[in-house]
């Protein structure tokens, strides 16, 4: 959530700000925010991530970081909860859990996550999308706004969803990996609903760290419904992109992570677990 600041500053500071703006090529707003963020020790254009996608594929589902700790690193993002108990959506500094049938509730600060990605979101670019017929069309529209194949991008889309197909992971059984655990996921749809898609686009080269391509979670405008995006039909979407140039990963110290085999390519498993509905798995 952005705030507007009005204040008086000296001419010397104003001249220095203009000089820095001209040097970087950024807007005055971005220039000032970057300077203030640096002075206050805040990381903008920086992703904080708990664990890796490779570990998640291998079934490392034990929570290792509290929700309160996530909030200290960002106000926007997604993930899951201890033992794969539902989908996480973080929006405007609040963290929500989407469970069976897409019913959401605000997460307790003491809950833990085995995998999450958060940032301090601020739109660097905005694009209006009049109509979307399916998730493929949505991704094509977003692709046209991305400046590079090599940086991470935070994605926030707000608007009217004529139909949105979602899922929520259910608590994993002992010994399951990600593909097996999401095979008994809860799937559901909502129609004619306003809300927000929250997520990230990650480069292909980072596939052992995060889900490559788009990874999006939904939460309704009234904050009562949500889940992991499978497909969508929508109109009048406002797409906001936040360019991420810094990545911090908190490596879990759990026994499961320390002894997991993380040398395998997780691509196929991630495509099944993160992007396929139960129908498409058959």
From TrEMBL:
Pfam families: AAL_decarboxy. Belongs to the alpha-acetolactate decarboxylase family. The lineage of its organism: Bacteria, Pseudomonadati, Pseudomonadota, Alphaproteobacteria, Sneathiellales. InterPro entries: Acetolactate_a_deCO2ase. This is Alpha-acetolactate decarboxylase. Keywords: Acetoin biosynthesis, Decarboxylase, Lyase. Pathway: Polyol metabolism; (R,R)-butane-2,3-diol biosynthesis; (R,R)-butane-2,3-diol from pyruvate: step 2/3. It comes from the Bacteria. It comes from Sneathiella marina. One of its GO terms (molecular function) is acetolactate decarboxylase activity. It catalyses: (2S)-2-acetolactate + H(+) = (R)-acetoin + CO2. Its EC number is 4.1.1.5. The gene is budA. CDD domains: acetolactate_decarboxylase (cd17299).
């Amino acid at each position: 959530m952005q705030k507007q600041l009005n204040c008086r500053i000296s001419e010397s500071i104003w001249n220095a700000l203009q000089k820095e703006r001209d040097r970087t090529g950024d807007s005055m707003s971005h220039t000032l925010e970057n300077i203030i963020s640096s002075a206050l020790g805040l990381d903008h254009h920086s992703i904080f991530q708990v664990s890796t996608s490779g570990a998640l594929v291998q079934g490392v589902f034990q929570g290792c970081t509290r929700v309160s700790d996530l909030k200290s690193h960002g106000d926007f993002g997604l993930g899951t909860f201890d033992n794969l108990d539902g989908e996480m959506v973080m929006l405007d500094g609040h963290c929500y859990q989407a469970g069976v049938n897409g019913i959401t509730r605000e997460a307790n600060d003491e809950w833990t996550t085995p995998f999450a990605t958060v940032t301090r979101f601020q739109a660097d670019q905005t694009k209006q999308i009049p109509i979307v017929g399916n998730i493929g069309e949505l991704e094509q529209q977003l692709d046209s706004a991305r400046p590079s194949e090599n940086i991470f991008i935070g994605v926030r889309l707000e608007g009217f969803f004529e139909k949105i197909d979602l899922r929520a992971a259910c608590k994993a059984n002992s010994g399951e990996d990600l593909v097996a655990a999401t095979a008994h996921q809860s799937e559901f749809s909502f129609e004619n609903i306003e809300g927000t898609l929250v997520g990230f686009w990650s480069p292909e080269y980072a596939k052992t760290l995060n889900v490559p391509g788009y990874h999006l979670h939904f939460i309704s405008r009234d904050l009562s419904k949500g889940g992991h995006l499978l497909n969508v039909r929508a109109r009048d979407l406002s797409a906001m992109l936040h360019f991420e140039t810094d990545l911090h990963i908190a490596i879990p110290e759990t026994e499961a992570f320390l002894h997991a085999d993380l040398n395998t390519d997780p691509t196929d498993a991630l495509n099944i677990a993160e992007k396929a509905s139960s129908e498409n798995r058959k």
